[in-house]
Amino acid sequence: MKIAEIRVREEEIPLTRPYTIANASYDRVTNFVVELRAGRLRGMGVASQDDEVTGETVEMCRQALDVDALEWLAGRDVREIQSICRELGKRMKKTPAARAAVDIALHDLLGRYLEMPLVKLLGGELRGMPTSITIGIEDVESTLEEAREYLGRGFRRIKVKLGRDLEEDVERLERLREICDREIGIRVDANRGYTVEQTIDFVERTLDLD
Questions:
Q1: What's the mean pLDDT in 34-54?
Q2: CB–CB of 62/31 below 8 Å?
Q3: Is 69's pLDDT higher than 80?
Q4: pTM to 2 decimal places
Q5: CATH level 2 (architecture), domain 133-209
Q6: Cα-atom radius of gyration of the chain, to the nearest Å?
Q7: What is the spatial distance between Cα 13 and Cα 74, in angstroms, rounded to a whole number?
Q8: Do residues 31 and 13 touch, judged by C-beta distance below 8 A?
Q9: What's the rounded Cα separation, in Å, for the pair 105 and 113?
């Protein structure tokens, strides 16, 4: 099952609302979609880089996923996926998002060839997993309004971005727990917005909200 065609497209996706974290604010994201074709089958993967976290910029990702840069994949047998992924790691050391997109596309293609869900291909069990939806850094009332929307849509896990103002963050979580019963999981992510001392203070003040 040899890879016959490689396609990559860049998509700029506007967000439904501005998304703010401790060190940045976004109103759109840039994704790169990798598509590997073999006969009638195709495997797909997506790259969403974050230069603040990994140092990989949009331009680095774009260059790494240029079709010419991926030409080495043409003619490779996807059944030799371990060998291909080792080479992929050597070729894309500094672009983890780009590497992940190709890796995912390879595994997707192999799973389709074997007519096997990816979870089984990787040795796991096919079962449901609750997903969370994220609320960016907002004031208290906006946080509650957005949370009510997500609860109404059936989400049972809510992730809250923190890190701009410790006092406000604690209040946001206290008020959020008031409208969420204990069966609703609340996760937090401060994106390196706290010092060590602030982190300890935050944990001690919110332990009973878990």
A1: 94
A2: no
A3: yes
A4: 0.83
A5: Alpha-Beta Barrel (3.20)
A6: 21
A7: 29
A8: yes
A9: 12
Q: Which two tokens stand for residue 19?
A: 């998304």
Asked: is 5-121 a CATH 3.30.390.10 domain? The reply is yes
Backbone angles phi, psi at 44, to 5 degrees: -130, 145
Does residue 24 or residue 59 have the better pLDDT? Answer: 59
Q: Would you state the structure tokens that stand for residue 201, as one six-digit string?
A: 């203070």
Q: What are the domain boundaries of the chain?
A: 5-121, 133-209
Evaluate if residue 20 carries a pLDDT over 90.
no
Distance CA 109, CA 74 (A): 14
Average of per-residue pLDDT values in the chain? 94
* Neighbouring residues of 75: CB distance < 8 A, sequence distance ≥ 6: 2, 3, 4
203 contacts 162 by C-beta, under 8 angstroms? no
pLDDT in tens, 123-141: 888 777 888 999 999 999 9
What contacts 176, CB < 8 A, 6 or more positions away? Answer: 143, 144, 147, 158, 160, 186
Of 191, 165, 167, nearest in space to 23 by CA: 191
